Amino acid sequence: LDDAAALDVQWRIAKAHVALHEDAQAIEILRAIALPELPASQRAELLEELAIAQRRTQAIDDALATYNEILAFAVNAPYRALIRLRVGQALREARRADEAAAQFQAIVREQPTTQAAYLALTALDEMGRAEMNDLARAEILYAASQYEAAIVALQRHLSAAGKDPQSYYTLGLCYQRTRQYEAAFASFDVLIEDFPAHALALSGSAR
Fold first, then answer.
1. Who is most buried in 77, 82, 86, 117, counting CB within 10 A?
2. Mean pLDDT, residues 156-167
3. Residue 140: which residues within 8 A CB-CB, separation 6 or more?
4. pLDDT averaged over the chain?
């Protein structure tokens, strides 16, 4: 076999070990693969498999180092958010709750439109550590297509904080997505009547 074919065979054998939960064997093979010779996407995938095996063997510090190795070269923002989520999950598995919560909170604060932010928010809710207002919560839920939950959060925000244009705009979008068209019209009407300048700006930003 040439070098590329040999790497591919090693990679396939390692993935099979991971799938079979034969983590010690997987870790040994994955550590032996020459990472610099791999394209970035394949290198990241290999390191993710390595981190999975490390977490299952309770080698949490090793897994955290592996995730940090991915973050050192990964550039795609949603993918970076996902890896940061994995860091938080690993810390939570290790019962390092404060560090895990800090990681999750950073994701929801800095990358709220990613799927990772929704999963981080779910983890924070489970931990009782979600430190955000309902408008910020609704934005995360809307981005994750959790429209019914976003509606509840927006209604709660409006009851507590009073009218604001962004809330009515997002509420209208949520109602539209859930085919509650009369409620969507009502939300957009409030936006147009009470915040005409904002209505025009928000409409333009959505194009």
1. 117
2. 91
3. 108, 112, 113, 117, 118, 121
4. 92
- 134: which residues sit within 8 A by CB, 6+ positions away? 153, 154, 156, 157, 160
More confident residue, 23 or 199: 23
User: What gap in Å lies between CA 5 and CA 49, rounded to an integer?
Assistant: 19
In this structure, what token pair is assigned to residue 63? 């897994």
DSSP H or E segment with residue 37: none
Element (H, E) at 166: helix 165-177
φ/ψ of 121, rounded to 5, equals: -65, -40
- The mean pLDDT of 5-11, rounded to a whole number, is 83
**Tokens representing residue 2 in the block:** 């040439």
CA 144/CA 35 separation, integer angstroms? 34
Would you state the pLDDT for residue 91? Answer: 98
Side chain identity, residue 181:
Y
Distance of alpha carbon 170 from alpha carbon 155, whole angstroms: 11
When pLDDT is averaged across residues 20-40 and rounded to a whole number, the result is 88
Q: Which residues contact 159 (CB under 8 A, 6 or more apart)?
A: none
Provide the whole-model pTM: 0.87
Element (H, E) at 118: helix 115-127
Instruction: List the one residue out of 137, 75, 68 whose CA is nearest residue 103.
Output: 68
CB 124 within 8 A of CB 108: yes
Q: Which two tokens stand for residue 126?
A: 């489970």
Separation of alpha carbons 123 and 72, rounded Å: 25
